[in-house]
TrEMBL record:
Species this chain originates from: Actinoplanes lutulentus
Domain GGDEF per the UniProt entry, residue ranges: 354-476
Signal peptide: none
Record carries keyword Membrane: yes
Sequence intervals crossing the membrane: 26-44, 56-79, 91-109, 116-138, 150-170, 182-203, 223-241, 261-280, 286-308
Keyword Transmembrane helix: yes
Superkingdom of source: Bacteria
Protein name in the entry: Diguanylate cyclase (GGDEF)-like protein
Amino acid sequence: MRLFSVVAVLAITGYLMLPENVWVRTVWQVTTGYAATAAILLGAHRLPRADRLPWWCFAAGVFLNTTGIPVSVVGEIYFGFLDLPTPADPFFLGLYPACALGLGVLVWRRDRRRDWTALVDAATITTGFGLLAWVYVIEPQDLGDRMNRWAHATQVAYPIGDLLLIGMMTRLLRSGGSRGPSLWLITGALAAFLIGDTAWVVLGNLGEFGVMLENARWFRRPLESVFLIGFLLFGVAALHADARQVAAAAETPPARLGRGLLALLAGASLIAPALLAVQLHHGTVVNGWALVFGSTTLFLLVVVRMAMLVRETERQARQVRDLARSDELTGLPNRRAWNDELPRALERARRDRTPVAVAFLDLDHFKVFNDTHGHPAGDRLLKAAAAAWHSALREVDLIARYGGEEFVVLLPGAGAAEARQILARALESTPLGQTFSAGVALWDGSETSDELLKRSDAALYVAKANGRSRVELASDNWTMQQAG
């Protein structure tokens, strides 16, 4: 890759200094393009077979575009092919579908899920630049007679190809996965082609001044080298070690709406009013219906994008709320969620005049278990115990992690006898041969949630003092030994 990079720099530098001989320039261009094709194929050969297809597509595009150079020169010098379409145009145009196919394969392999947000972003940018292409390139062409229609079709095929590459390139950059050097080299190669095509379109619209610039060596030679840079960047991208990661399935999420992307979307959305302002400044609106269609499409795309952004924000807000109320280790409700739910449960019990019980659970000898087996084993015990106890409870019951190895249980509608049965099942289900001590308090109908918790906590300490592996009922000091 380093050797080819040095050769690429020398190739571009040498081309700028070549004499004004059409055959020397043609041979240099063709040699550079075919060398880039060979570099792409060599880089692809070093990759796993499943990852070679997009690089083969890029190689095909560079090969076809390079082949169009000698075909164009020979056709112009020996056969007088000056007007579009020429035999070289199919080769030049072959670059677009080949590269678009390669980009499509990369997008599909990097991001298998349907990312509608990225698709809307790509559509917005493509629509904005498409409106520019329509106003300044496509619509101004005179359809004329039958031959001119072929010329018109050929002329508009180039900006359409550029729009295709813009859309696919935007979608690729919005995908997940690696964003290493190879990806940016591919982006630079495509950008070089787009810059070169745009420059030729601008020259064509400048009339005699454009012809003068086209014939000026100091201008034409750097402009021609832009396409050579595109060829060579593809070769460097294929030979780079990071090429192995370009087609890898995404492990990182897609790029978010950063400042650069936001600026690009804003610029694309403002193209339609900017074009209208220019035409109003010149005193007449030439492309009224195109501007109406483009403005409407861009407006709808912006609305869709805003709706997606709002939904994503709401989803993230819900996720944050859920995380704030869930224990990270066990997945149970945490102390914050418990403190919110207990007063509501007591209020329902007051309204419906039904009993409610609260229990404090504490794993017995958990510190000894941790010291013996290690903290990872302790975490696994907490997760397993939480899952087992949750399964032993009723659907209406709530268990939450209060802190450390302490858990709290809310038993709506449960009196003393039913609370005993429920906690007995939970005690028997404790995994890894472990046990817990528990204190249960029945709500008296008037005390606060804090007072109720204090009574159940006091009963828990009684259970520990009486030998653990048991449940103490705060109201009557009832004890229950572990079954067996």
